[in-house]
């Protein structure tokens, strides 16, 4: 589809519209060449940013040639023929837009587009019917744009600082290329989000805001009341979960009720910015169950909810838990484009648009790129995890998927100083879940610092270099418990697994799933892993050994806390052991131990620990443990 720019001049300023070329009346088409969308949008932006003096002249009928020449020069630099500007008067412009808005009214397009951000090609695919006209979907979407119900931009737009992908926000990932679709020699395209369908300069990107809450009166409608949490799930909440869940429910209900009660929707960009809160839960606290309470509240008020997680494997498990939590209700699961999802991307892409989504959507953060102001509640779990952490693309996607007046919940066991500071600044409350679900304290890592560890690190697959205390510690565990050994890199993990003669697992491992299944089924195995298993995995009765824990680039405080958090998660064996082994004692190691101790102190002070429980490190020391106990004096806080 090609476009034209209509421009009218009034003393009040420029009025412009980008419309499909075919929608122009024949007399306006004469002498005008249709443009690819990105060029039309550039012309529109140039006209709208013109200085007041020039606008005045244009309104009086002067300077049109000069302005046209300037636009033609710009288009020439893009390798395009002039010109896409149709000069007309204001009444004519309004008439063209009105005629366009009245055409092709199609509820099918509205249904698919509401709450979404979709390329023209995705829209066509979603609405394709046998024998149907492929252009019908596009012109129906254009009608929604003309009517002001939807927005349309070029998927990649050009401005003074270059080109920018409007879907993923990428600039560095955009490069010009000869294009078979629009004929331009320099059509800009984005490589970063290309796996979701290529964003090009000549491809329209449609977006349509969804409602904050389903239309209706104050009371929840029939479909909303179906979303009730299973009573056995509510009954199984621990005291810590219960308290956090109630606090979170209150926050969400108060916010959404306030938005609904106001009558007039709050205009975008006003108010105090997006509202939300942070849930800071220790590893093994069961924060997902805490979030389900808030989900129930939002769904009960007729809202849509997105539960987003960075990784695919966790998304699938979360969707299943959500389905069970809500008594078998249908939950839409969208996956793809995680770091570990090569197989799933294609499947997720094609299956998405055939059926109406459930009001509860569970998705990887990449999938949020296809939503637009759709969700009254967005719950983002593990927000400090790869690949979400540090990705401006995914941050943009998740924020854009939330309705501007919706509520956001971000959850982690290790939120980090920066996130907490920005939450405080925005006035977001922080809700703590300081105790594990089973009410036992977190295992506090023991620390063993030995120079010999450096020698091993230099040649990890040499069995001669394995420090004796490591062998002794492992041998003491093995008769009765599984051990997960963490290494900072794939090379170290491979080497350590060889020198110890045990299994290994990392993201590039060909038999990853099989290895994990074998480990899960065993009682006495040792598995060496990279940070791949740092979170989102639970094995009952597990001890944790972190090797080369002073590795500066990979093992930061959050990662160390997460790895330690794999131990002692089951109620049957809540007292797992954790050992950090390193050649030097790093700041991150010290801070991780302190953070875990602080959480245990908080849980004890708030009366959330089970009576009679003690921190494992304050219990009688293992007679078979060679680990020094110099630090135990500091740990008897419980
Ligand atoms: Zn992009
Ligand atoms: Zn193109």
UniProtKB/TrEMBL annotation:
Does DNA-binding count among this protein's keywords?
Answer: yes
Q: What Gene Ontology molecular-function terms does this entry list?
A: helicase activity
Reply yes or no: does the keyword GTP-binding apply: no
What sequence ranges are listed for the domain Helicase ATP-binding? Answer: 268-433
Q: Matching PROSITE patterns, A to Z?
A: HELICASE_ATP_BIND_1, HELICASE_CTER
Q: Which SUPFAM superfamilies match?
A: P-loop containing nucleoside triphosphate hydrolases
Annotated Helicase C-terminal domain ranges read: 469-616
Name the UniProt key words of this record, in alphabetical order: ATP-binding, DNA-binding, Helicase, Hydrolase, Nucleotide-binding
Identify the stretch(es) annotated as Disordered.
Answer: 606-638
PANTHER family attached here?
COMF OPERON PROTEIN 1, PRIMOSOMAL PROTEIN N
**Descriptive protein name:** DEAD/DEAH box helicase
Q: Which organism is it from?
A: Geochorda subterranea
